[in-house]
Amino acid sequence: MKPRAKILIIAGSDSSGGAGIQADIKTVTALGGYAMTAVTAVTAQNTTGVNSIVSINPIEIEKQILYTCKDIRPDAIKIGMLHSSLVINSVCKSLKKLNIKNVILDPVMFAKGGARLIDESAIMNLKKKLIKKVLLLTPNIPEAEVLTGIKINSTDDMKKAAKILIRFGVKNVLLKGGHKKSKIIKDVLLNKKEFNIFQNRKVKSINTHGTGCTLSSSIATFLSCGKPLKKSCELGIKYVNQAIRNNVNYGKGHGPINHLNSIKIEKKFL
Ligand SMILES: Nc1ncnc2c1ncn2[C@@H]1O[C@H](COP(=O)(O)OP(=O)(O)OP(=O)(O)O)[C@@H](O)[C@H]1O
Ligand SMILES: [Mg+2]
Asked: DSSP states of 237-250 as a string?
C-alpha cells in the first residue's frame, strides 16, 4: 500500500503508547497516511499516571520540524503537547517558515489521569500567539474553560466558549464533549459561519486513554487526503468512537483505545 498523504506530528512521547506521538503515529498509519514526527517532550507514564516529563530543547524541536519538512513536505500538521513558552515560540517560528494550511492544534493541558502537561506562561502564549495560526483548534472542556475563563456545564456553554475562541482569532474550533457526564456526548464545531454538533452515545469504559490525540491526528489525515473540514471532523469522531468500543483493555488504569481498529490483519500473518 502506498500512503495517501504525509502528516507531520509535533507532540510529546507517551511511553505507554496510548496517547501522544505513539497514538498519533498509529492512527495516521492505520488510516493510510505517512507519519513524520517532531518530539517536544518525553514522558514516562503508564495507564495509571504520569511519572516524569523531560523537555526537548526548543532548538532541537525546530530542527526536527524544518529539516524533515525541507525534504518531505507534509500535507497536514498535527500539533499536540507543547508544555513551555519557549517550545511554543519555536513551533510558531517553524510554522511561519513552512506556510502549510492544514494545521490542527490539540491544546493538550492535562493527561487523562489529571496530571498537568503545560506551564502557566505557556497557556498565555498559546492563547495569544499560536491558536490564531492554525486551521482547527480541538480543546476538550477543561482546556476550553482555561482558554476562555468561563465554566462549561451545558451545550449552550460549549457554544459560548467556542464563540469566544473564534473572537480570539481561531479559524475553526471543535470543542470536545468527552468530559461531560451525560449519556450523549456532543462535540461542537464552530467556524465563522455556523455550528455543527456531532452526537454520540457515551461508551461506558475506563479505557479512553488517547481519545484526544487519536481524534486530532485522524482529522489531520482525512484533511490531508482532501476531505473538507466538517467531513474530516465527522469521520475522525466516528473513528475514535469505534476505537473506544474496540479498546484492548491493557493496564490497570485508563487503558488505551484501539488506534488500529481500521486495520484487518491478513490471515497469512497469523
Ligand atoms: N466515553 C466516550 N464514549 C464515546 N465517545 C467519547 C468518550 N470519551 C470521549 N469521546 C470522544 O472522544 C473524542 C475526544 O474527546 P475527549 O473529550 O475525550 O478529548 P480529550 O479529553 O482531549 O482526550 P485525552 O484525554 O486523550 O486528551 C471526542 O470526539 C469525544 O466525543
Ligand atoms: Mg486531550
From this structure: HHHHHHHHHT----
Among 6, 112, 176, 186, the active-site one is 176
Which residue's C-alpha comes closest to atom 21 of ligand 1?
140
Ligand nearest to the CA of 141: 1
pTM of this structure: 0.96
Residue 27, in any domain of the structure: yes
Answer whether residue 130 is part of any domain. yes
* 208 assigned to active site: yes
124: in domain: yes
Confidence of residue 270 (pLDDT cuts 50, 70, 90): low
Domain total in the chain: 1
Return d(Cα 28, Cα 51) in angstroms, integer: 27
240 pocket-lining for ligand 1 (C-beta < 6 Å)? yes
pLDDT digits (tens, 9 = 90+) for 59-108: 999 999 999 999 999 999 999 999 899 999 999 999 999 999 999 999 99
